[in-house]
Design goal:
Helix content is 49%, strand content 13%. The chain is α+β, with helices and mostly antiparallel strands. It has a 4-stranded mixed β-sheet with strand order 4-3-5-6. It has a two-stranded antiparallel ribbon with strand order 1-2. The model has no long low-confidence stretch (mean pLDDT 97).
Length: 229
């Protein structure tokens, strides 16, 4: 059961954690490399701000981004900004997202995201929560996958497992987390069944392309090579 109101509370809490952590940086740290290839921390922070505005567009029935080129250009233009400008942008864009989500609306309606992807409006808050949590980790400033709220990690594993379900490049795979929680994914490629076991953080890191899966235990074949998100 999706509860968009609870997810909005979680988005706010994650945003506050991010703002506190980023507020402890300095201008030099913003220009340093993030964990995302080719992106500085300034790129990550600018992307988070523009993503908040893009999801406002989604709520209000406009295209998420004017174009892929405009999205990339906005991120490049905003990346070199000093810390105080980045923080102000993060705060104000987060508030715009909060305000747009507070407008009474039909949360069961279908909305359009990037590249023709559609989803129910009630899932948009969780999508924003994903952006804030994973990109906080991508900043490389002391917040790790192991620090993510357990409920978030379980849901994001399920979200990504569903994304790869039936994918033609992924064999039938069962994911088993420490503690016994399981998910299934893949099934569109030959081979398997394969079982991948590990900590929730380890499984999430592999599914989300943040870790290579070397710490996972694989049975029934090789660790599947996942397509890019």
């Amino acid at each position: 059961m999706i509860d968009h109101a609870d997810d909005l509370v979680s988005v706010q809490a994650a945003t506050e954690r991010l703002l506190r952590a980023v507020g402890a940086l300095d201008d030099a740290a913003v220009t340093q490399s993030s964990r995302l290839p080719g992106w500085t921390r300034g790129h990550v922070l600018t992307h988070l701000s523009r993503n908040a505005d893009a999801l406002v567009n989604v709520f209000e029935g406009r295209p998420m981004y004017a174009s892929a080129e405009a999205r990339d250009g906005d991120i490049e233009a905003g990346a070199p900004r000093p810390l105080d400008e980045q923080l102000a942008d993060l705060r104000t864009s987060a508030e715009r997202f909060r305000a747009a989500a507070a407008v009474p609306a039909d949360w069961s309606r279908t909305v359009e995201l990037r590249n023709g992807v559609t989803d129910r409006a009630e899932r948009v808050p969780f999508r924003r929560w994903i952006e804030v949590e994973l990109h906080h980790v991508d900043l490389g400033i002391g917040y790790e996958l192991e620090d993510l709220p357990a409920g978030f990690t379980d849901r994001e594993i399920g979200f990504l497992a569903a994304r790869f379900d039936g994918h033609p490049d992924v064999p039938a795979t069962t994911l088993t987390a420490t503690g016994g929680r399981t998910w299934t994914t893949g099934g569109g490629a030959d081979g398997g069944p394969i079982t991948v076991e590990g900590t929730p953080a380890g499984l999430l890191g592999w599914l989300a392309g943040r870790r290579d899966g070397g710490a996972l235990t694989v049975k029934g074949g090789d660790l599947p090579k996942l397509p890019p998100l």
